[in-house]
Amino acid sequence: EAQVTQNPRYLITVTGKKLTVTCSQNMNHEYMSWYRQDPGLGLRQIYYSMNVEVTDKGDVPEGYKVSRKEKRNFPLILESPSPNQTSLYFCASSPSTQMGGTDTQYFGPGTRLTVL
Amino acid sequence: AQSVTQLGSHVSVSEGALVLLRCNYSSSVPPYLFWYVQYPNQGLQLLLKYTSAATLVKGINGFEAEFKKSETSFHLTKPSAHMSDAAEYFCAVNFGNEKLTFGTGTRLTIIP
Known about the structure:
- The structure holds two protein chains of two kinds.
- In chain A, about 0% of the residues lie in helices and about 50% in strands.
- By secondary structure, chain A is mainly beta.
- In chain A, the strands form two sheets. In chain A, strands 2, 4, 5, 6, 9, 10 and 11 form a seven-stranded mixed sheet that branches.
- The model of chain A has no long low-confidence stretch (mean pLDDT about 95).
- Chain B is an all-beta fold.
- Chain B contains no helices and twelve strands.
- Classes of the chains: A mainly beta, B mainly beta.
- Chains A and B meet through strand 4 and strand 5 of A and strand 5, strand 6, strand 10 and strand 11 of B.
């Protein structure tokens, strides 16, 4: 089944404890992206990757890191989480090789993160 | 500045009534326009998208949207609401770059 998977689905952690949220897609998509969803703010893009080894900042990159060493995986890293990073996170992928934002994006099920 | 505006964070309609969810954008270039739906505890899935082929776009589950350049709008409609349509709906716009900009979402409630 074609899908985007995220792990973990739920995570409660404490301030300053490094964490990684994994994202994997099995559709051979070039473009991958991370979003955070907050009430009243919709989805905001954190980072995106046009292809392997190419990543760029979205609208809210502060406090996050990403890496794209393989086409299928795009982990989101929080080096020192803070309470304002408590949110619902979505990974998405798209087949587009050029303008990633013009093609349909396929979303993972989400990761609900709470930072105490 | 390029932006996406969804009017009404909450919309309630009776079962069988018309659904109208509004989306306006500001851009000087023709955009790519999308509507995504998020059912409770799920990720987003594409309802429909406009890519300049036709101004009236039909999507899944009986939804459609009309691109009106003069009004910079892309409102989502469905003639007859069903209980299963209860969800959050997001308008999203690509302004000709690598990113997708989302509106703040509209939560649709269906009244039995």
